Amino acid sequence: MDRLTFLAIDTEAARTIQRGGPDAYGQLPMKAVSDGDGMPCRHCMKNIEDGEDYLILAWRPFPSHQPFAETGPIFLHARECEAMEPGPKVPEVLHQSPRYLLRGYGNDDRIVYGSGKVVPQPGIEAYARELFQDPAIAYVHVRSATNNCFQARIERA
What we know:
The chain is mainly beta. The chain is built from two helices and eight strands, in the order E-H-E-E-E-E-E-H-E-E.
């Protein structure tokens, strides 16, 4: 397993929220102004610059409600930003923190027990490849190591 694909949240979901739609809890997102420090947009995967408007919302990166479908806060540009192209490289915004939580999920969208691990930022790719050695793991989430916020999804390329 050599190749990985990093994915941001999809454009349809981002546009729905940026155009005034509700979040995972059916609430309208909170609007704030960035101070430029550590507010990664989960659609373009770029830091929200100082002075830019952004949205804070509840995000559930799973197709349905079920016990393992974690919901948590994420940031999104308030403006319609361009999507990050899925690709094999760790998105630049994931170089902002010293460590991340990686966790594997099965085709049933449930956590594969024993797969979660906090890894140093430079170890994201290596640990994702290690997780994909397990055929039970369909995809991996990259999450904040300190707050558990969803950052990105990794799939086999």
